[in-house]
Amino acid sequence: MAPPYPSFLAGVKSACTGSADTPFVLLGNFEVEDEWARDEVGLPTVGGRASTAIVNRMDEFAVLLAGPGDHVVLKSAPDPDYLAYLTDLGIALPTILVTDQSDPAATVSEDALRSPRLQAALRDLAGTGAHLLPHGMSTLEARLCEATGLAPSLPPVPVVKAVNSKVYSRRVARDLGLPLAVGWECETVAEFAEAAKEAARSVAAGRRVGVKDAYGVSGKGIVVVEDPRRLDQLVRMVTRRAEKTGDQRIALVLEEWADKALDLNYHFTVGRDGSVRFDFVKEALTENGVHKGHRIPARISAAHTAQLVETADRLGRRLAADGFHGIVGVDAITTGDGGLLPVLEINARNNMSTYQTGLQERFMGPGTVALARQYDLTLTGPVGFADLRDQLGDLLLTTGGGSGLLVNNFATVNAAAPGPDDPRPYAGRLYGLLLAGSEAELADLDHAIARTVRKETVNV
Amino acid sequence: MSVTVAADQQVVSAIVTALEEVLGQELTDVTEQTRLFDDLSLDSTSVLGLLMALEDALDMQVDPEGLEQSHLETVGSLAAFIAESR
What we know:
Chain B: Pfam families: PP-binding (PF00550). The complex is a heterodimer. Chain A has 4 domains: about 10-155, no CATH class; about 180-255, Dna Ligase, domain 1, CATH 3.30.1490; about 260-355, ATP-grasp fold, B domain (D-amino Acid Aminotransferase, Chain A, domain 1, 2-Layer Sandwich), CATH 3.30.470.20; about 365-455, Alpha-Beta Plaits.
């Protein structure tokens, strides 16, 4: 295990740059999988893989991962009342840089690449030894490093991309002799057709099978099959496409759905020197396979925790041997029979859980329980942070201790607002970390917030 | 951009049933104007499940890559595309 550092982020700096004091430029390029998938063949897609306006504004999460000596690049300036709220909580904020232009359909990286003024500022920072820490490293962030002289914190794109494939996750887990769900990795259409035949037998026997894109974003790029005919349909669609394009490649995994008790996310940091630091394990909250939040601490046994710590160490060493260094999150599950499947997928990029680390360090005491979650809103017009603060009242965390909701991304609330002439209601997302002294208090707080945001911010 | 059509009610009803299947929830307020991505949080791969369920329900074959973004704007625009493909 690597030596302890004063903070999670200091440890990442040390692991990725050799010094715990290196200034970072953070970039929240969520759904970086879309870039990795660009020259891959997966499930048939319709309407492209463009990220939504809300996902693109998840860039604001980076503000609370960064420290006061760091810089964060955002698509637009945060609501000043939101920043004042964070400062009042005693959070030392990073310096915020904003892209010259902000296209709702573009990721922060795409906007940054079209921003000469921002790039000039980044060139100055490069001169001070700053390193770029993106959410995940793709060709876009590599281009930004080239354009600005910023040193990348992460390894070259081909290495990062390779270790983020779900095909890689399964092969590494098998190589290391880790428990693994029954499944198949497919790299050609013929392999897929063969695997689909075997998977159809699983489905016919009453089990569910997930067909996953090697570079699907968590919760997306998955077809869950409960009827063997769906597998035939998929094979037919994929074969037809291959005949049309002449490209027989494919990057998919098929996996039997295990009998899940709890979803877990654990996290470790791999150093350039091959060291591995276990960071944490959290309970992940999902709904129909889509990530909805975390519960801290995870309600698992000490034995399972120990097993995950050991698995993290072994995975970290393997990733280091394959040329990777940086932040890694792994999705795992406990099963109904009391078992543990420690590797569902390896995400060698920031995870949602990564962005809570600074807040946990500052606001979670030994007796604190926390819930990170999102509230889905329906809005008819932009809501300012001051409005939300007034509506939430005492439910909002307003002091350094105690309980309440700590909003950790406000940009996603209004990200999908249509033009002023479009009267249709739109979806917003409010992200927060709920802190409380007990399970019961946490549940009450969650219900009270859900009731308030549903009633108060909806003007339909 | 949305496509306004007098959609075939059989197709609309098949789409709603297929949406319930892929989203794993009962849908009560869906109309032809309901937006698939913005209102129902469908993603591009859920659309694939949707199309497969529609192939079954309406006994037809759909080429997923023949579908354009504008066809996926609303329940009504998808119904129009499906009705034309039959």
